[in-house]
Design brief:
Elements: H1 2-32, H2 39-56, H3 61-82, H4 92-114, E1 130-133, E2 136-139, H5 140-162, H6 164-174, H7 176-181, H8 186-212, H9 218-233, H10 238-258, H11 263-277
Antiparallel strand pairs: 1-2
Helix pairs in contact: 1-5, 1-8, 1-9, 1-10, 2-3, 2-4, 2-8, 2-9, 3-8, 5-6, 9-10, 10-11
Pfam family, one: BPD_transp_2
Transmembrane segments: 12-35, 55-78, 90-106, 112-133, 140-159, 179-212, 224-251, 257-277
Subcellular location: Cell membrane
């Protein structure tokens, strides 16, 4: 029983980490309808910028937690204003191709600047200890990640469903011309959402770096898991993303413990079953014609 509890808490921590990484992607797709395949690269840039701030320049983790996501947000702003905004009327295929190409550009840029070696960031000293729960010892930082994921999920849900900005954004996705006629600059709103998605990607990179590390192709591995979470939860649903991240995190943790050879197969099998059962995901809205 103690082993099961330990694996469950580890899985919950990993699931919350997946949510922190994926929520920006879910937000951008759910509101803008843009499947940003460069999201993993923005996550990677957040982790590498945090590495430079903490290791190369010697600042604290907390400075990196502020500066790195803001740096990625600025990068997202440049991408949206100079490239992505021209594709809004061209359809999803052009956005997928554009962001996929950007992912490879940022991949090569990261290798040029930081090299291809495996790097790491230390856990902040404030959370470097451990906590005993039911006789099992857990790293304090992993428990903090659970708390961060919960706070972030509640905050995003509240913004999306209980604020004027959330109402404007949802209405803008349904009928941007009508919202524009009411005097709302929907293009500015969309830019803010994409920048927020970039900020969250960078934030996820900083939070995840002490646990997952930094290594070549980290952005593509992360993107695959993020897309799995997004599809299982329902495209664009913050609540669905939160639920799916926990399911995937716990299932993969138990899979690595019990049958490590097929742990990833279990995740993709789960995704296939859910898509057969509910093609729009666990909590996604079903798209209807007409």
């Amino acid at each position: 029983m103690e082993t099961i509890i330990a694996q469950f808490i580890n899985g919950l921590s990993y699931g919350m980490l997946l949510f922190v990484i994926t929520c920006g992607l879910a937000l951008v797709f759910g509101i803008l309808g843009v499947l940003n395949l460069a999201h993993g690269s923005l996550y990677m840039m957040g982790a590498y910028v945090a590495y430079s701030i903490t290791v190369s320049f010697g600042f604290s983790f907390w400075v990196a937690l502020i500066i790195a996501p803001l740096t990625v947000a600025v990068l997202a702003l440049i991408i949206e204003r100079t490239l992505l905004h021209t594709t809004y009327k061209l359809g999803h295929l052009s956005q997928v191709l554009l962001t996929f190409g950007l992912a490879y550009i940022l991949h090569d840029l990261a290798k040029l600047v930081w090299g291809a070696n495996v790097l790491s960031i230390s856990v902040p000293s404030l959370f470097s200890g451990s906590v005993s729960i039911l006789g099992q010892t857990f790293p304090l930082y992993r428990l903090i990640v659970i708390g961060v994921g919960l706070v972030l999920a509640i905050g995003l849900w509240w913004i999306q469903n209980k604020t004027r900005w959330g109402a404007i954004i949802r209405a803008g996705l349904s009928d941007s011309e009508m919202i524009g006629a009411l005097g709302v600059n929907i293009r500015f709103v969309f830019t803010v959402v994409f920048v927020l998605g970039g900020f969250l990607a960078g934030f996820g990179g900083v939070i995840a770096a002490p646990i997952l590390g930094l290594y070549p192709d980290m952005e593509f591995q992360t993107l695959i898991l993020a897309l799995v979470v997004l599809v299982i939860g329902g495209l664009g649903s913050i609540t669905g993303t939160f639920t799916a991240a926990i399911i995937v995190g716990v299932l993969e943790t138990f899979g690595r413990y019990l049958v490590p050879e097929i742990s990833m197969f279990i995740i993709f099998a789960l995704m296939a079953v859910i898509l057969i059962w509910r093609p729009h995901g666990l909590l996604g809205k079903q798209v209807t014609e007409g």
